[in-house]
TrEMBL record:
The keyword DNA repair does not apply. It catalyses: [protein]-peptidylproline (omega=180) = [protein]-peptidylproline (omega=0). It holds the Pfam family FKBP_C. This is peptidylprolyl isomerase. Residues 1-20 form the signal peptide. Keywords: Isomerase, Rotamase, Signal. InterPro entries: PPIase_dom_sf (IPR046357), PPIase_FKBP_dom (IPR001179). GO terms for molecular function: isomerase activity. It comes from Butyricimonas hominis.
């Protein structure tokens, strides 16, 4: 692996679990690291089947080895396994070695134990890309077949955290072909589930990225004032993440990214919105209601992190907005 990556990881390790202490006031980062490795080896004694992966690392001209483990995975070779470059949809649970739950993509509260800052507040499954064996997590994804589970243990060095990581994965799906094609399939399935024919949708190609299309499906067309890119609009809107695990795209099951009370309205400046909403709204008229379906490339791309390093918008989210326009207000150009 690249040296600068390891230097960054080692600094995190030193700062996280050892406070970079090399003086007489406490144990050094290397002593704490060795203690952590001993705890992991003890935990792994009765785990089967198991594989270990050894990573060679160097810090302050000292070379040593970091061992990670993968176990409890399916050995059925008839099931598909991910390849380099593919995206997978995964759920996971992070635990301490004493089984205390630290994070979970499926629920923010598991077994009555509240997770204060889950990495994905909207839940999962979430996209991960299998980059290559040079990337730590990608190395382990290749053990897990589609539809199966498995576990990994990474030291704080490898997980870039303040403690070791005991993660239970489930690979929900391996995305065949391009991620964009999969997003379009999700859009088609959503429209079908809602009783709309894709042929009746308005498709707006991106001017910047000619392989992305925003789709708009109107509940009914109304002859009234059209929306301009410079306008402000008063709307009622609910927004959701599309995925195929949401019980036939029922809005009660979809992960909400925007939820307004029934009587609530908001005023938005069109030019301030994400690309997909900008072009979607300018295809609508005052009084109309529509679904606007947006691929991740015209939405939030690789996601949005907040102050607590949570993905308030998860990476590669395909979005659908159910939106009704009540009024428009021209703005000065």
């Amino acid at each position: 692996m690249k040296r600068n990556y390891w230097m960054m990881m080692l600094c995190l390790l030193a700062g996280g679990i050892a406070g970079c202490s090399d003086d007489d006031n406490g144990p050094s980062w290397k002593e704490l690291f060795d203690k952590e490795q001993a705890l992991i080896r003890e935990f792994m004694k009765d785990k089967s089947p198991k594989d270990s992966v050894v990573f060679d690392v160097e810090y302050k001209k000292k070379k040593f080895q970091d061992v990670a483990y993968v176990f409890n995975y399916s050995t059925d070779n008839s099931k598909k396994k991910p390849k380099d470059g593919q995206f997978i949809l995964v759920n996971y649970t992070d635990r301490a070695l004493n089984k205390v739950i630290l994070d979970d993509t499926r629920l923010s509260t598991v077994g009555g134990e509240k997770i204060e800052y889950p990495k994905y507040p909207t839940g999962g499954p979430v996209y991960e890309q299998v980059i290559s064996d040079e990337e730590v997590y990608s190395r382990f994804f290749k053990y897990f077949s589609e539809g199966t589970s498995g576990s990994i243990i990474l030291s704080s060095l490898l997980s870039a955290s303040s403690t070791y990581l005991y993660r239970e994965y489930k690979v929900e799906k391996i995305i065949e072909g391009s991620l964009l094609d999969y997003e379009y399939e999700l859009m088609d399935e959503f429209l079908k589930a809602k009783g709309f024919d894709r042929k009746n949708s308005i498709e707006v190609p991106s001017k910047m990225l000619n392989d992305t299309v925003t789709r708009i499906v109107k509940f009914e067309e109304i002859s009234s004032a059209s929306i301009l890119p410079t306008d402000s609009v008063t709307v009622h809107c609910n927004g959701y993440i599309l995925d195929e695990f949401s019980d036939n795209f029922n809005e009660d099951k979809l992960r909400a990214v925007l939820k307004m009370d029934e009587e609530k309205k908001e005023t938005w400046k069109v030019s301030d919105l994400i690309e997909g909403l900008k072009v979607g709204l300018t295809e609508m008229n005052v009084g109309e209601k529509a679904y606007i379906l947006i691929p991740s490339g015209r939405a939030y791309g690789k996601g949005i992190l907040n102050y607590y390093y949570q993905y308030v918008m998860p990476p590669y989210a395909t979005l659908v907005y159910e939106i009704e326009i009540f009024n428009r207000k021209p703005n000065a150009k």
